[in-house]
Amino acid sequence: MTYPGGGGGEWPPQNNPYGQPQQGGYQQGPQQGGYPQQGGYPQQGGYPQTGPQPQQGFPQQGFPQTGPQGFQQPGYQQEFGQPYGQGPSGFSGGEPPKKKRTGLVVTAVVAVLALAAGTVATVWALRSSDDVAAGSESPSTAANNLLSALGSGDVLGIMNGLAPAEAKLSKDYTEATISEAKRLEILKKDADPNKLSGVQIKSEGIKFDDAAAEKVNDRLTINKVVEGKITITSDVKQIPLTDKLVDALGAQLDKAGTETDTIDFAKEKADRDGKPIGIATIKVGDEWYPSLFYTIANAALEQEDLKWPAQGIAPAGAGSANDAAKQMVEKALDGDVKGVIALLPPDEMGVLQDVGPVILDQMGKTSASGAKLIELETDSKDVSGGKLLTIRKLVVEAEGETVEVSRDGDCYSATVQGQTQRLCADEITQLVEQQGGRNIPSAAIDVIARIGAQVLKDGVGVVATEVDGKWYVSPFRTYSELFLTLMRGLEPKDIDELIKAIK
Amino acid sequence: MRRVSGEPTIRRWTGAVLGVIGLVTAVTGFFLPWLRSGTVTRTSYEVVALRGFAGLNGVPGEIVRGVWVALTPLAVCCVVLWAVRFHRIAAWLALVFGTIAGTVAALAAVQGGNEAALVGISLTGPVATLGGAVLGIAGAITVLTAKSRTAISTPGGAP
Q1: What is the DSSP letter of A276?
Q2: Which of A48, A257, A274, A399 has a 20 to 30 A CA-CA distance from B15?
Q3: Contact: B150, A50; criterion CB under 8 Å
């Protein structure tokens, strides 16, 4: 049932089955204060509306409702106790009271402020959380960022600012090594690779000579540091060593104390006949990063009075991990150093490819070993950053003889001149005892046997990594995996024996 | 005569005010230091930016970033909804916000405190966010447990 709009007028009698006039808020007296109701208003005579009532056909005009429509009826007590749609008791006709818009204004201001602040905060958040490859637009900025991170002891900034492949190498093996050190009870269980302690680095007044920067090629620039100091303070006692190791090292730890080293770049320049120290930066993608490997290579070249070659060795990856390992063995047997360098990963070992021609010059002509690879089969296992390829079968021909090495579980067999010898992981102890006699302490035999068994179990091999769809052999990862394999062969009691030996 | 009870309204608005204070505090916490490396501190968003360094590359990393960044607009939605009196929806969203932000902040806070370490959790941001999240949740619960405002007494019995 609807009534025609009667803004300001008396509502006609409602359908009131109780025959009582509406009172209070339900008495539809003259609409005041700008809340004229127009359109129908299906009031059920005198019933209290006790729940959220949807509005039906009575659009309010002159008072925009800011709350949920349909929950508020004119004439009811509003939230915050603001009655509206109802004038003061007994008021009828005359000048309507001034509208109170404070609530509306406050609501609008709060909403607008919240939206504005939220937008600014979200844009800021989006920008700040964008993946920081931490590269820089120019070589000098990249070098400056590194030294700035060094100066504030910002390990994360240093690691994240380094060339991506170098940072990943460092991160992968730092974590794995610390994990093994914890297992062996060298470091405390709660030692965190991300919470390195014991070293503080500070820098001051670092200055680059931009004019002296040496642009080797489009993706390598050597920035020259001419002023400033870097101070490195190390305190062995801050390293989270286990209590038993601290007790064992006792006096030596106290003796070690705090050590401080300072690199004064101006003094270094003077000592090097006016040649400033160079910080190498490389271009990866569109951004520049400081590179530890290139910096070391640059220092080595400077020491030998050599120049960066104009042209490096082009990387030449293989189609599969196994092929990369096979080609590496073939080229090594052939004495093809250039081919070996070309098979190194261009992201991690690009420095060796860039400096490769100088290495070849220094080495001179290398002769072939005379051996020839006949067959190489490998077992592949995923390791951090690549695949560990261990020998399953290797057949090499040398001086007319065929040597075959094959692996079956924990056992290796070697066949030379038709004779086969087999060695299994559980035979290592016996072999060490036989070879070493009674002179070797039993604890040492245990350690050697365990490490040997671990090597046979894990297998000996190389780590291959994939770069841009091609496979390369990573010497750094290969060495690190071998080191970890040896560590895995140790047990905490071996460290105890070592401590006893130190005492 | 019917009388409108003001208690639920007061509770609802008390909850809303608590909630808004909590959300603002929690979001402010996002921009305070969460990680310390040497003398450099990083906000929660700068920490998220290091996700690649932590091995969170590709889609998982983008999801983590998306969820964390989305918390700020979510908090803004809550505040606006509370301002325009959509109390219950705002309260539910504040609960979601408080649960996510509070959990992450609590995890970070319990890891923090090793001042000797070169890299460590800075407590300022996590504690502010945790406090804000707790307030936000308290406000939301206060709103959600408030009775309907039309709970009224009816003197004289039912009509």
Answers
A1: P
A2: A48
A3: yes
Contact A18 B85 (CB under 8 A): no
Nearest by CB to residue B69, choosing from A52, A129, A159, is: A129
Q: Using a CB–CB cutoff of 8 Å, tell me whether A53 touches chain B.
A: no
Interchain contact A437–B (C-beta under 8 A)? no
∠ CA A471-A472-A476, rounded to 5°: 140
Give A368: exposed, middle or buried? Use CB within 10 Å, 0-12, 13-18, 19+.
exposed
With contacts defined as CB-CB under 8 Å, which chain A residues touch B52?
131-133
Q: Which of B79, B116, B148 has its CB closest to that of A238?
A: B116
| Residue of B122, B39, B31, B123 lying closest to A158 (CA atoms) | B39
Beta bridge partners of A278: A224
Phi-psi region of A205 (alpha: psi -120 to 50; beta: other; left: phi over 0): left
**Which residue from B18, B64, B125, B152 is spatially nearest to A131, judged by alpha carbons?**
B64
Token pair belonging to A369: 């070993």
d(CA A265, CA A271): 10
Q: Which two tokens stand for residue A465?
A: 């990594």
Could you tell me what percentage of chain A is helix, strand and coil, using 3-state DSSP and rounding each to the nearest 5? 40, 25, 35
Task: Tell if the CB–CB gap between A155 and B37 is shorter than 8 Å.
Answer: yes
Angle, helices A350-363/A292-303, rounded to nearest 10 degrees: 20
**Cα–Cα nearest to A315, from A344, A294, A337:** A344
pTM of the model: 0.63
Smallest Cβ distance to A111: which of B2, B39, B83? B83
pLDDT in tens, chain A (503 residues): 334 333 333 343 344 444 344 443 344 444 443 444 443 344 443 444 444 444 443 444 434 444 444 344 443 444 444 444 444 444 445 556 666 677 788 888 888 888 888 888 888 888 777 765 567 888 888 888 888 887 777 777 887 778 888 888 887 887 788 888 888 888 887 766 555 556 677 778 888 888 888 888 888 999 998 888 888 877 777 777 888 888 877 767 777 677 788 888 888 888 888 888 888 999 988 889 989 899 999 989 988 889 999 888 999 999 999 999 999 999 999 999 999 999 999 998 999 999 999 999 988 888 888 889 999 999 998 988 899 999 889 999 988 889 999 988 888 899 988 888 888 877 877 777 777 666 677 777 778 888 888 888 887 789 999 999 999 999 999 998 888 888 888 888 888 877 776 66
Chain A CA closest to residue B47? A129
Distance CA B103, CA A269 (A): 53
B92 burial via Cβ count (<10 Å: 0-12, 13-18, 19+):
middle
Question: Using a CB-CB distance cutoff of 8 angstroms, which residues of chain B are in contact with residue A167?
Answer: 53
Give the count of alpha carbons within 13 A of B48, CB side only: 24
